[in-house]
Fold these 2 entries.
Entry 1:
Amino acid sequence: MTENHPQQTWDKIYGRNEQICVWPWSDLVSMIMRHAKPETQDFRMLELGCGAGANIPFFLSLGVEYYAIESSGVIVSRLHKKFPELEDKIFVGDFTKKLPSGNYDLIVDRGSLTNNKTEAIENCLQLCHDQLKPNGKFVGMDWYSTLCSSYSQGQIEDDWTRINFPRGPFVDAFRVHFSDKEHLLELFTKFEVRHLELRTTKSEFNDDHPVMASWNLVATKK
Ligand SMILES: C[S@@+](CC[C@H](N)C(=O)[O-])C[C@H]1O[C@@H](n2cnc3c(N)ncnc32)[C@H](O)[C@@H]1O
């Protein structure tokens, strides 16, 4: 296991039956329908870090050919039982090292790449670029922003990545990568960023971590 690999953390989390999200993320549904709706037959897509499979029924309902790569063997074996038709399409692996080859129309990440450090994210985006069709789309959801209160906490791993949060929403996280607009655009230099939005919420009852903020984006392979 490499030090970048979050498998142990996520195996423990899913083994304790935590973070078992099974309802599709509503922002992701809106983003796909607005900016990346499958329009062709034989539409191939890859989800990075599918977790407990929250988004799978939504994508299957669109009739796409769905593939996923996920670090946790614990959750993947549960997904293989739940979706037997995807047994040879959901892989255990580190998406920052290698992707199932696919000539994809769409690659989607909802809250997974943000668990990795900057260099690993750069590697993954290069792999995504290699595996997308010309004009293929990358949809990234819930990439944490440097506006999050937690950005100033935790130990510095690299300029944009923090580990060992003492408290707050990321206390159980292996690591969290945060971005500002310039950093995001730099990460996606090989893509054309077509849509970028920042979602910010401020809690009136959490003095320690009042602000949660994250980016959603749609980028096209140049
Ligand atoms: C917060 S969960 C999100 C799950 C899912 N995308 C969703 O929207 O419900 C993050 C997932 O990303 C996976 N993950 C994080 N880094 C990974 C990596 N380098 N390779 C493969 N999977 C990874 C974790 O195992 C975890 O299941």
Note: The chain has one domain: 7-221.
Entry 2:
Amino acid sequence: MTYDFDHVINRLNTNSLKWDALEERFGAKNILPLWVADMDFRAPDAVIQALHHVAEHGVFGYTVRPDSFYESLIDWFERKHKWKIEKDWMIVSPGVVPALSLLVQAFTEPGDKIVIQSPVYHPFFYVVNQNERELVDNPLVLTDNKYEIDFEDLEEKLSDERCKLFIFCSPHNPVGRVWTKEELRKVGELCRKHNVLILSDEIHCDLIFKGHTHIPFASLSDEFADISITCVAPSKTFNLAGLQSSAVIIPNEKLRKQYKDALRIEDGDMLNPFAIAAFEAAYTEGEQWLDELMDYLEKNLHYLTTFFQNEIPQVTVIQPEGTYLIWVDFRKLGLTEKGLEELLISKGEVAVNQGYIFGKTGEGFVRINIACPQSTLKEGLKRIKKAIQSIKDPVSD
Ligand SMILES: Cc1ncc(COP(=O)(O)O)c(C=O)c1O
């Protein structure tokens, strides 16, 4: 191990959303944050060095992107995901979420229907509703502690002629599924059959646990690539979310033009100089860091799973295949969603994401971020146990 993921870094007073916005978001100051999708780890050394280099230069004017910037992403996806991306297909964006909103505007009209699969990353609801499109849910189905796609229902939803777009989360946040080739094929065939574009948010594509493989939807066939818009970024993979850099990949030339036209700003795809440097350094030199990170997350996942099995058996961990966001089922405790939230904050002094923010199907679940030193995770789980023991029918020790 080159990197010390056990090392606890004090993130308080660093303008961190995760650590410094607790009072605003949870109404309590001294609580332990295991929410929001960023990690309590330092980025790879190469990224930090690249940022030093930019800072030391001291001139932060408008930017262009060198070929090496594009090559870093192209090489990464070819090597890690067997997907050959062409430079022309890439349009950069500061964040995936702003891109999602613009993509909705570019490819649909007000009143059009857009399919999502709840429980799902909550901004998907927002980008559809705020843009006055109609949200159509194809809820994922939980069978034997694993979420599956209800393809019959999906086909029914996609076949509506007002349905124009499917926002697909692959791998899926929060349920942790890494979709198989068969599942992706079925999704693609249905979208093709019913002329629905697929917006595949693959921001978590590099955070994959052993035994699973992420397959970029667009890599499966030219026909699928033709109806695809894929969002990727180094931000989750290398913990660079605050630097804001991502890429929208659109292989179909006509669709690409449609998106570029919708951006409606000349040079609208500029990134800041720190984002450019970090993006390139991460994709070029971050692989070893990522390998070590995944080993560490695997250990944290094992710790969390064993903890719940042994200490709070009424609570079930949905085993993730990818991402560091763990979807945990608290429904057997019989609490209302507000009751569970209040309990964890006031009695546990721990901040997690409540399942209901991911849609109605998320009620009674909690999303726990395990991308932290194991000592932090242990403390968080101890607090969750304390909160649960404080209710009238406490679990036995
Ligand atoms: C599925 C998904 N898409 C997008 C984002 C955020 O992307 P960005 O920070 O680039 O806007 C997240 C963050 O958790 C996410 O889980």
Note: Residues 37, 95-97, 121, 169, 173, 201, 203, 233, 235, 241, 246 surround pyridoxal-5'-phosphate (CB under 6 Å).
